[in-house]
Amino acid sequence: MLTSQRKQLILEALKRDGQVIARTLSVEFDVSEDTIRRDLRELAAEGQLQRVHGGALPASPAAVDFAGRERIESASKAEIGRAAAGMITRGQIAFIDGGTTAVQLARHLPRDLRATIVTHSPSVAVELAEHAELEVIMIGGRLFRHSMVNVGAAAIESLSHIRADFYFMGVTGVHPQAGLSTGDMEEAYVKRALVERAAETVVLASAEKLNAASAYKIADVSAASTIVVERNTPEMLTKPFEALGITILRA
Predict the structure, then answer these.
(1) Which of 1, 9, 73, 164 has the most beta carbons within 10 angstroms of its beta carbon?
(2) Do 17 and 94 fall into the same domain?
(3) How many domains, the chain?
(4) In tens digits, what is the pLDDT along the chain, a chain of 251 residues?
(5) In this structure, are 194 and 95 located in the same domain?
(6) Which UniProt keywords apply (predicted)?
(7) Which of 222, 177, 184, 212 is CA-nearest to residue 97?
(8) Residue 115: domain span
(9) Are both 202 and 186 inside the same structural domain?
(10) Model's pTM, two decimal places?
């Protein structure tokens, strides 16, 4: 069997089963585990999968920068944002993450809502500039341009002084075993700090992020009390999370 054929079969197994195990593949293809590990390394370098101990998981396709993501699936992101915005009520304090779906959340907050929004996203802060009843607290730090959020020690230190009712989290991967993940280490640290300072974490996740993984883990999936998904997201993608006691809110 040609290497290209074997790689294609690995990707098909990954899509079908949601994960692959190197030892199982070596038996199935009658090759060494070293050969399978090399295949997995090469596929990971191409962004086709995310390697984990003993095998691989589907890679999140959410690697496009902020400007590129703004042009993709805007309708579904708007629906997720609208549903999440409806969870914030008068007098509450909410962390809103960075990312294009978070901007949609901010865009759908009622103009007469009296609440406090804390964000490390300049894009979210600008979106809320005309909401006169909202108190908007901007967390500073180094600007991570890919996601248009502030990161670093200064951001984490600022967050340590705030307690919120909700944290609306953006991710690139949501997986029952691999947890909540993202593609940048510093961004993961800030998201972890936000989880720790919020009473409840709500994950905003379009379908392609479910059962996928990125390189940097934020927290176990159990850190999320609710996952907001598109209305037509297949049940096979959401059932593993419902089995863990996580609420699935269909936008």
Answers:
(1) 164
(2) no
(3) 2
(4) 788 889 989 998 888 888 899 999 988 888 898 899 999 999 988 888 888 888 888 887 665 444 444 545 578 899 999 999 999 999 999 999 998 999 999 999 999 999 999 999 999 999 999 999 999 999 999 999 888 899 999 999 999 999 999 999 999 999 999 999 998 999 999 999 999 999 999 999 988 899 999 989 999 999 999 999 999 999 999 999 999 999 999 99
(5) yes
(6) DNA-binding, Repressor, Transcription, Transcription regulation
(7) 184
(8) 66-250
(9) yes
(10) 0.84
We report the CATH number of the domain holding residue 45 as 1.10.10.10
Task: List the one residue out of 51, 52, 43 whose CA is nearest residue 10.
Answer: 43
The closest of 171, 208, 215 to 44, measured between CA atoms, is 215
Q: Are residues 80 and 200 in the same domain?
A: yes
| 89 and 211 housed in the same domain | yes
Distance of CA 225 to CAs 141, 174, 200, 232, 248, Å? 28, 13, 6, 20, 9
3-state secondary structure 21-84: EHHHHHHHHCCCHHHHHHHHHHHHHCCCEEEECCEEEEECCCCCCHHHHCCCCHHHHHHHHHHH
Q: What is the CATH number of the domain that holds 86?
A: 3.40.50.1360
